[in-house]
Amino acid sequence: MAKAEEKRRHILQSAEQLLASRGLADITLDEVAKQAGYSKGGVTHYFPNKNVLLLSLADMLNQDYLDRIEARRSKEQIEIGSWSRGMVDVSDHDLHSSSVVNVALVAGALASKEVSESVSDSFRLIQQKMTSDGYDPVLATIIRLAIDGLYYSELFNASPLDDELRGAVLERVRSWTFQPME
Question: Measured between alpha carbons, how far is 173 from 150 in angstroms, rounded to an integer?
Answer without folding.
Answer: 11
